[in-house]
Design a protein that fits this description.
heterodimer, A: 263 residues, alpha/beta, Rossmann fold, 8 helices, globular, B: 258 residues, 6-stranded parallel β-sheet, 14 strands, 35% helix, Haloacid dehalogenase-like hydrolase domain-containing protein 2 (chain B), phosphatase activity (chain B), HAD-like_sf (chain B), HAD_sf (chain B)
């Protein structure tokens, strides 16, 4: 591993769940202070998350309760991105999402649907609901499936649960189609955050706990990808067959120490 | 040219019947087929109906068949569990549970996935996933993408198997069609090679691709789950006919040439 702080860092993307706080738990040690120190350093920071279980507003409010102090406009979750794609392409979705997240879709016409959008859900992933999505997709001349991320599983309060990626694979297999990913690791999703900072990819570091979607995804956009040993991290991730992180750190606080030292 | 007795493998649902209705002309076509000296076997990927239920339904529709001519994916699954002394966690329909009676279910070391809408819930899928990443085997009764219901197409077990495979990194053993083992077991009682066999079905992946890759001659029928252009979605070449009776007519023509 080379020193990932050697090339000047002009922008930082942070994953949220598993980097700032543990899913279903509390803020990760040192992360509140780490984010505050980054903001004070004036390096632009944006938060890139695949969280779709609630609205952006609710997510930011939760982070504020933990003690983080970012603004809502600096947080990039998939649903607002999805909404603008739907508007742009004049699409009306059948959605499998938690009701708590639907407010971010309020401007979207969901009647007489002509595409399917799936995101964070739990019991909504039932046979009957998935079958509805399937029946809609096979009835369309151009079946369109959007998946808000493509994670395999997550750990909530010590219990493993299948993530949206599994159900995306299920519908892809059933309909012989390929989903469009909105969220990490899609290039256009990362690019929206980069453009917002007006910094080129090679000057940006992405820090996350998902070796494939955060680290690998950022690297394939030309950023540096740094893996934290918190959240969904497992030691096997350090010898991942496809993704070699530019850096591996114990937690966000350690990454920020290194970034600030290199300034 | 082979003069061996030919074997004709026939899919059930969507090919000769749809639920309790005959696909028109199939009862007579089957009678015609039996006037030739051929072996007939009904190969089905059911995940929820025992052989007995299938037999009764077909007889009631008016088909003349022998109980032992039915070879189903459920039997194949039971055989596999028995052979490897497994303790199954069953995501299968209650109607099929009877076939799995007698197997130990505590501390499961395999997950069996069939088609059971009420069992393929978020909770059960998560439990299955947990077992898989702790070393359990994944057995798919079959991996069909969808099937034909009276209200249209509906998801088969395949998408749920795919979801579990993606999450866990464990590849499923498919015991039903299109696995080679399934087709070979179906013909093992007869003195014949795959090249002496015909397969007739409505599913290009389950029925046709699997049989064709073993060297069987295949017919896809445009009934049941068949969708326009399906034959172009697979690698193998297959003959395409409107319905079962047309496939039988062609087979009779073929055989009379030898």
């Amino acid at each position: 591993m080379t020193d990932w702080t050697k090339i000047p860092i002009k922008g930082i993307l942070l994953d949220i769940t598993g980097v700032l706080y543990e899913s279903g738990g509390q803020a990760i040690d040192g992360s509140i202070d780490a984010v505050a120190r980054l903001m004070k350093s004036k390096i632009p920071v944006r938060f890139c998350t695949n969280e779709t279980s609630c609205t952006r507003k609710a997510l930011v409010e939760k982070l504020h309760r933990f003690g983080f102090s970012m603004e809502e406009k600096d947080v990039f979750p998939p649903i607002p991105a999805m909404s603008s794609i739907l508007k742009q392409r004049k699409l009306r979705p059948f959605t499998i999402l938690k009701p708590e997240a639907m407010a971010d879709m309020s401007e979207i016409d969901c009647s007489n649907p002509n595409c399917v959008v799936i995101g964070d859900a739990t019991t909504e992933f039932s046979y009957e609901t998935l079958n509805k999505a399937f029946q809609l997709l096979v009835s369309l001349d151009m079946p369109l499936l959007f998946s808000l991320g493509r994670g395999k599983y997550y750990n909530e309060n010590g219990k493993l649960a299948l993530d949206v990626g599994c159900y995306m694979k299920a519908l892809e297999y059933a309909c012989d189609i390929q989903a469009e990913i909105v969220g990490k690791p899609s290039r256009s999703f990362f690019n929206a955050a980069l453009e917002d900072m007006s910094v080129s990819a090679d000057q940006v570091v992405m820090i996350g706990d998902d070796v494939v979607n955060d680290v690998g995804g950022a690297q394939s956009c030309g950023m540096r990808g740094v893996l934290v040993r918190t959240g969904k991290y497992r030691f096997q991730d350090e010898n991942h067959p496809e993704v070699k992180p530019d850096g591996i750190v114990d937690n966000l606080a350690q990454a920020v120490d290194m970034i600030l030292k290199a300034l | 040219m082979s003069r061996k007795k030919k074997t004709v493998l026939i899919d059930l649902s969507g090919t000769i019947h749809i639920e309790n209705d005959e696909v028109p002309g199939s009862i007579d076509a089957l009678k015609m087929l039996r006037t030739c000296t051929v072996n007939v076997r009904f190969v089905t990927n059911t995940t929820k109906e025992s052989k007995q239920i299938l037999f009764e339904r077909l007889t009631k529709i008016g088909f003349e068949i022998d109980f032992d001519e039915i070879f189903s994916s459920l039997t194949a699954a039971v055989n596999r569990i028995k052979k490897s002394n497994l303790r199954p966690y069953l995501l299968v329909d209650d109607k099929a549970i009877a076939d799995f009676e007698g197997f130990p279910v505590a501390d499961p070391n395999c997950v069996v996935v069939g088609l059971a809408p009420e069992k393929l819930s978020f909770e059960c899928m998560n439990k299955a996933f947990d077992l898989l990443i702790n070393g359990a085997q994944l057995i798919a009764i079959h991996k069909a993408k969808y099937y034909k219901r009276t209200d249209g197409l509906a998801l088969g077990p395949g998408p749920f198997v795919t979801a579990l495979e993606y999450a866990s990194g464990v590849s499923a053993h498919i015991v039903g069609k299109p696995s080679s083992d399934f087709f070979l077991s179906a013909i093992k009682d007869y003195d014949c090679q795959p090249a002496d066999c015909y397969m007739i079905g409505d599913d290009v992946w389950g029925d046709i691709e699997g049989a064709a890759s073993l060297g069987m001659m295949t017919f896809v029928v445009k009934t049941g789950k068949y969708l326009d252009g399906d034959e172009f979605k697979i690698q193998s070449k297959t003959r395409v006919v409107d319905r079962f009776s047309d496939a039988v007519a062609e087979i009779i023509k073929d055989i009379s040439l030898f």
